[in-house]
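To fix ideas, we reproduce below one chain and its tokenised fold.
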Amino acid sequence: MVKKRLKIVEQIIIISLISVLIPSVISWFIINNVSQHSIRQELSNSAKMLADIIENNIVSIIKTDENRLNEIIIAVKHIPQEREQNLFLKDISINSGIFNDFEIIRPSENKDFNYENRIIYDKADSGLWLIEKIHDDKYIKAKINTKTIKDNIFKEVSAEKNRRIYIVDEDSKLVISHNYNEKDFQDCIKQLPFKLVNNVATHFEKIKNQPRVYLKRADMGLTIIVSTTDQLTAATINKARIKILLAFLATAAVTIFLTLLYSYYLYRNMRQLFNGIMAASKGNYQRQISLLTSIFTPREIVLFSDEFNKMVRKINESYNELQQKNKELKQLDAFRSNLVDTVSHELRTPLTSIRGYTSRLLRTDITIDEETKHKSLLIIKQQSERLSRMIEDLLVIPDIEGAKLNINMERVNLLNIIESSIYSVKNMEDRQIENNISNSFPDVIADKDRLEQVMINLLGNADKYSYADTPIKIDAEVKEDKAIIKITNQADYIEQSVLNTLSDKFIRLDDRTTRTTRGTGLGLYIVKGLIEAMHGSILLKSTIDNIFETQITLNLFDESSDEVSSDEA
């Protein structure tokens, strides 16, 4: 079973997600817990501070009320009758707004009363009383106005809506409250420790993020309870938690986005590298690596791509050179094969004729008349000239291919060249040739011998491939500084695609299996090479009305200059 291997981009994504998500989650838990603990501690400290403030307010109010009570006691001492004292105290309770009631008590009459406490909470009437001594056998007990206490105790926290404050007695019964909530009050009473610490704000809680604080004043018989609401928790701890979570989610999202973007760039560029390598392994050396370059593209990949492209270009150049060399070798091999085949075929005919007629003339057992001798010698001469021309054609090919033709450029009379060429062709075949070039036609710049070789080849081709009993026409015209020579004959229509190949080596209209005419297939190739070496051009045309035309363009001789040049083309 073959194991499936992950792609590079898949590995990067998995590793990135693991490296981002796991640290992010751990960091979020740590920071969230630290933040939660810090805020919870802050809430607890603020609750303790609030309890201290309430205690200070109570102490301050009690002290103020004690001072007022002492003033009342001084006044009472100056009233001799107890009845008048009670009336005075009743009048004060009605008008002062500080004390609701007064009571004069004697230790001898109420031995169970604790005269040591200056502040007591009376469970019977749920009132807070101050006790002050008038003289040894008489005390005054003043009930503090609950509304006045509440207004003064909670004046600093009147706008505080996220805290609930309860002041309870020793039996945990409510004395005064701020933002009272029955369920919360009962929960606080249930959670209070069995043994309370005196005079120190102490933290207690059941709900983790809602700290509660109590402060017991044993001398007053009161306990202050400060409870934190869930709204304050939501506004602090939960809100901070959400902010931290959103910050981490945003950070993780940005990190993952950048990771995915980097992975995309890396994946695309790695695919380009792989495709380039695979193409090269399959022999495609033209494939170049095209990277998606940006700040996310690693420098090493860019360098690798550049070096790979350089390597592929060099391999492609070497490969093209090798293909060209192979093509040349194939052409050379085909040339050698065609040359051997053509030479063996074309040279055999004139050699056979020369050998046959020579053997006939050398026979002594028969008598040969003069006319037969003359005819035999004429055939031997014609075949020798044909053999000489073929050899000359074969010898000029290496010079054409190597661009080493020795060209002797001179002033040439075109009419003389044409007439000489016609004579040579007429010696070979009985063909009507119409020379329409006038005696006044201007001279051209060319190599005389090479130009005559060209004309003989062209007239020979026209003679071989034209219809029987049709004339060959030679015309010439001047166009600007050029001489245009046209050789026209009647022949079968030749397709343009075939016409374009006739100037190649060993190209013939009839192949070696259907060959009906003589020739090596080198005539037009040699003509083209010689004409171009003389700074001219050749054009072949074939029309559907069976007209074949060879058009040669040469430079006219400049009458203002008699210079003659010899070029190696």
